[in-house]
Design brief:
Blueprint (H helix, E strand, L loop, with lengths): L10 E5 L8 E5 L6 H7 L9 E5 L21 H18 L7 E6 L1 H12 L6 E5 L21 E8 L6 H13 L3 E8 L7 H10 L4
Parallel strand pairs: 2-3, 2-4, 4-5, 5-6, 6-7
Antiparallel strand pairs: 1-3
Helix pairs in contact: 2-3
Length: 211
């Protein structure tokens, strides 16, 4: 992966047409995954009637190295990926969808990207479900985390241990989001592994997608 290269904007869509959409779910896939893979996750979420939007990462990876590396190690890929998420949000808003009706879900690298975007753009969105993720950086730069979530529900689930995401980073992320006004439900599952389980799906549906 060349550090000179950046992501192109490639959005896959499913569910209800975006034109006239009432609710949108933005889905972010993990490293090595695809937009189609993560759209399949919606089959297990309580999102009937939603428009599903999933950007595709160039070479199936949002940034080249661990999310625990210093930001500069993952540039310009990280900034480009964050711009892609912003572009998807803008597409929904241009279609007339209010921010309170825009939801997010992501797995692993996609969950990290989602959480970083949200912390940098704190708004009262509909809700977010992060399946094994945390805020990005060796030492996350809290000076760029701005806004207020106004009680937005967030689900954070992970395994203890997880081979890629330390539990301590998940707990740190919970603290940051709560300070910004999110209503966070944090669930840590002993020995779950780097995956998404039915128990997590059920909890995310109850916390984020039940309204």
């Amino acid at each position: 992966m060349s550090n000179a290269q950046q992501h192109t904007l490639d959005i896959r869509q499913s569910g209800r047409p975006l034109d006239g959409a009432s609710r949108v779910l933005i889905l972010l896939h993990g490293r090595g995954g695809s937009a189609e893979d993560i759209i399949g996750l919606a089959n297990h979420l309580s999102v009937d009637g939603f428009t599903l939007l999933a950007p595709q990462a160039t070479n199936n990876t949002w940034y080249p190295y661990s999310f625990m590396m210093p930001h500069k190690a993952n540039e310009p890929w990280l900034s480009s990926a964050l711009e892609n998420v912003a572009a998807v949000v803008d597409e929904a808003i241009k279609a007339g969808v209010e921010k309170k009706d825009i939801y997010f879900a992501g797995f692993s690298q996609g969950a990290c990207l989602m959480l970083e975007y949200l912390a940098r753009n704190g708004e009262e969105y509909g809700g977010a479900a992060a399946f094994t993720g945390g805020l990005i950086g060796e030492r996350p730069d809290q000076s760029v985390y701005k806004g207020n979530f106004g009680g937005m529900p967030v689900y954070l689930g992970t395994s203890d241990p997880d081979p890629h995401v330390p539990v301590e980073r998940v707990k740190f992320t919970t603290a940051v989001l709560e300070k910004m006004g999110a209503k966070v439900t944090e669930r840590i599952y002993p020995g779950m592994g780097h995956t998404i389980t039915k128990e997590e799906i059920d909890e995310a549906n109850k916390v984020v997608f039940s309204s």
